Task: structure prediction
Amino acid sequence: MAEATQASLRAILDTAADAIIGASDEARVVSVNPAAERMFGRPSAELLGLALGELLPGLDTERLRATMADSMLMHSTQSRVGQLELQALRHGGTAFPVELLLGEIANDAHVRYTCIVRDLTEAKFTEEYLALYSRAVDCALNGICISDARNYPQPLVHVNPAFSRITGYAPHEVLGRDTSLLNGALTDPDDLALLARTLQSGGELGITLLNYRKDGSPFHNKLSVSPVRDSQGRITHYIHVIEDVSAQIEVKQKLIERTARLNATFDLSPDGFVVFDASDTLVSTNPAFQAMAGPLPPEVRTLAAFERWFGALCGGETPALTAAATGAAAPRVFQLQQPALRVLECEVRRTKGLVAETFLYFRDVTQQREVDRLKSEFLATAAHELRTPLASILGFTELMIHRRYSDEKRLDLLQTVHRQGKLLANLIQELLDLSRIEARQGKDFHIVPAPLTDIVQAAIQDAAGTDLARSVTVGEIPDVRVLADAAKIQQALTNLLSNAFKYSPAGGPVALTARVEAGADGAGVVAIAVRDEGLGMTPVQLQRAFERFYRADTSGNIPGTGLGLNLVKEIVELHGGTVSLDSTFGQGTTATLRLPLVAQPAAASLSAA
Result:
């Protein structure tokens, strides 16, 4: 029976995972099990007789006794058990951590101490790894919380400091509760439903939610959810990583708004823009540029191709548009021949940095150039026209001051001075009228419904007063009312009648007629025509008739300022009407003025002498 017990004990010792060493009273090894051989890397023959200090440095006789003296007494066996953690040495001197349980044997002549040695290498590694992992989680800038997937409703079992910093909840306020405590009134239910389905299906999810902090303030939470599975593949926990991206979303929203404003400005700008990226590939053009130069062909995708295409529109060599792409460079001027004659100013800007782009800025200065040309011509012509009557006035008055003339001659000179002074006064008055009309754009016009017959009658009387020897043949005038400033339209008609008189030097007939027509928009208009059978105009003269200071008569025999027709045109167009000329050289001219009607015409007529 004793032999069987001994054999059983030996089998247990031989199969134990921990090293078991029997030590003598002098702290020398007297027995070892196979696990000790594996742990220390030596056969039992080498281990037997070694001092324990060679295997477990620092464990000598004195420490053994001291450890046992401080050890715990087991009342069931009335024996003591001591415990130590220290460094052991493998064969070759490699140190490794071990846990040592010491027992004392009282009645054995050979074995005084039993040493059970457990290798803590893997346990220490795991412990250090877990400590490192825990430290990494606690130091993470993103909030991390872990929920228990095995219990409903997946309560939180761990949160890191970043979670508390982001949400305002302390750990003890959230542990045991689920993540729904972060939801609020504006949290999207569709997003929450997607999150619930993902948790139920065991999937992973990345989503941005509108969540709420403990103080009720909202924040945008970029949430990542991943499951943790055990060795059997069952989900035990979920890891939730939260990131407060409110600032990024706010910046993104501001960028979107700023981009929208820039795009609106880009699209609505009257100036043209063409943009190329860092590789000189076309990025975009705005509608204004396409209105100037026409749509870009599909093959124009690079800066070089654009320069060739733009050069063809200019009818010349390919321009190096980016040759002077600096802020200080003066704008370059190009004259388009296609699709229409235009003068364009071009400026180039190259942005610097990671996203280098080239901006071509085009401004249509055709009208500006034309205005500058007309202004120069106007000033030159005005100076000439003002100087001519002044020279006559000064010259004749000087003659009368320094010489004596007969009364008849003196009267003739005074009549010339008076005539030139009147011409000068008319010129200045018409210049003032034009300037006032252009400056105020008709704001001082008193446009109201006015009877057409009254306006026509007043204009005929004014024209007859300027030339008592002439009369106007008036046809049937519709009894209608027009939207007009009666005084201004009367002035326009008077100018047309005066021109008809002046350009009929032989005294030919001048006729005025009026009729109701349908306008371009379907509304009614009245057409007032003044016809003479005088000198007439050539097509070239007709084309320039409305220009300021232009006069068909270059002989100087017909008085005038060259501003009358231009003044008529300005007045009529500010009334929403039109004026046109039809003329044949040597046969006469018809000037037609069209004004909007107020009411349907009634049958009536005006006859005049």
